[in-house]
Specification:
The protein is α/β, with parallel strands linked by helices and 295 residues long. It has 2 domains: 187 residues, Rossmann fold (3-Layer(aba) Sandwich), CATH 3.40.50.620; 91 residues, HUPs (Rossmann fold). The chain is built from 8 helices and 12 strands. The strands form 5 sheets. Strands 1-2-3 form a 3-stranded parallel β-sheet. It has a 3-stranded antiparallel β-sheet with strand order 4-5-8. It is elongated. 38% of the residues are buried.
C-alpha cells in the first residue's frame, strides 16, 4: 500500500496575536511537512466571533510572513464552513447520535467537567439548546509520535460533549474533524494542550466514516506561573525584526540544534536549515516547557 502524500496544517485562532508558543507549533507543523516535501496549509479557526480580537487575523498572517513561512493555497476560514457543520449536526440528530441539552453552566458545577448525562433522554427541543454527541462506554487510544501511547475512556473521562453551542456557534471538536478530513490532512502537528481532545476527535472520525490522521503533539510553552502563552494572559506579539532569532529559539524548544550564528541569518535561511535538519524524534517528550528556560 502506498503512503498518501503528506498534508499538514497550522490552524491559529484570531483571539490574539502570534506569540512564541504559537510560533513553536507553527514551526513544528511547517518543518514536519516541508522536510518530506509535503503540503502545508493554513486555516483560520474563527469559530468564536465574541472572543476575536479586531485585526488579529491579518496580524497573524503578517507575522507568519515576516518569519518566512509560505503556505499552499488560500487560507481556509472556518467561518465560511457553517453550512457543512450544520449538515452534519442535522445528520447526527436525525440518527439519534446527538441530542439537545438545556443545562446551564451552574447546573453542571461540581461534576469535574464531565457531563453527567442530565439531558441525554429528555427529548428537548433543538431551538435554543446546545447539541451534544452521545459517547460510548469505550476507551479510545492512539500513539502520538512524540508523547507516546495515550488513552481516554470517553464516558468516564469526558461524557457527552458539545458539538454546537447554545448560542448557535459550532464547537471546535466538530469543526476541526470535518475540516481536517475535507482538506485531506494526513498529519496533525499541534500543541500538547489538545492531546486530550484527540480521543473525542477519533470517535467523531469513526462515527462519520472519516480517515484518521497521524498525530504529533509538541510541548506547550508556559509562563513561570504555569499559564500557557496566549491572549488571556497578555502574551506579547512576536517582534518582526527578530524573526530569525525567534525561529532559532523555537527550534531549540523543539529539541533541534541550530548552529551558532544562525540567529543572525534571514528568516528564510533559518527555515531552510530547519527543513533540511528536522528530526521529530528530538522533540522533548513533555507536555509543558517553561518559556523562561528558552531565553
Amino acid at each position: 500500500m502506498t503512503t498518501p502524500p503528506y498534508i499538514g496544517r497550522f490552524a491559529p485562532t484570531p483571539s490574539g496575536y502570534l506569540h512564541f508558543g504559537s510560533l513553536v507549533a507553527a514551526l513544528a507543523s511547517y518543518l514536519d511537512a516541508r522536510s518530506v516535501g509535503g503540503q502545508w496549509l493554513l486555516r483560520m479557526e474563527d469559530l468564536d466571533p465574541p472572543r476575536e480580537i479586531p485585526g488579529a487575523r491579518d496580524e497573524i498572517l503578517r507575522s507568519l510572513e515576516a518569519c518566512g513561512f509560505e503556505w499552499d493555497g488560500a487560507v481556509l476560514l472556518q467561518s465560511e464552513r457553517h453550512n457543512a457543520y450544520q449538515e452534519v449536526v442535522q445528520h447526527l440528530l436525525a440518527q439519534g447520535l446527538a441530542y439537545a441539552c438545556t443545562c446551564s453552566r451552574k447546573q453542571l458545577e461540581g461534576h469535574g467537567g464531565i457531563y453527567p448525562g442530565t439531558c441525554r433522554n429528555a427529548n428537548h427541543a433543538v431551538a435554543g439548546a446546545a447539541i451534544r454527541i452521545r459517547v460510548p462506554e469505550l476507551e479510545y487510544h492512539f500513539t502520538d509520535r512524540v508523547q507516546g501511547f495515550y488513552r481516554q475512556h470517553l464516558a468516564r473521562d469526558v461524557g457527552d460533549f458539545v458539538i454546537r453551542r447554545r448560542d448557535g456557534l459550532y464547537a471546535y471538536q466538530l469543526a476541526v474533524v470535518l475540516d481536517d478530513a475535507w482538506q485531506g490532512m494526513t498529519d496533525i502537528v499541534r500543541g500538547a494542550d489538545l492531546l486530550d481532545s484527540t480521543p473525542r476527535q477519533l470517535y467523531l472520525q469513526e462515527l462519520l466514516g472519516l480517515p484518521q490522521p497521524r498525530y504529533l503533539h509538541v510541548p506547550l510553552i508556559v509562563q513561570a506561573d504555569g499559564n500557557k502563552l496566549g491572549k488571556s494572559f497578555r502574551s506579547p506579539a512576536l517582534p518582526a525584526a527578530a524573526a530569525a532569532a525567534q525561529l532559532c529559539r523555537a527550534l531549540r524548544a523543539l529539541g533541534q540544534q541550530p548552529p551558532a550564528g544562525l540567529d543572525q541569518a534571514t528568516a528564510q535561511e533559518t527555515l531552510v536549515w530547519g527543513t533540511s535538519h528536522w528530526q521529530a524524534e528530538r522533540i522533548p517528550r513533555q507536555l509543558h516547557l517553561a518559556e523562561q528556560q528558552l531565553r
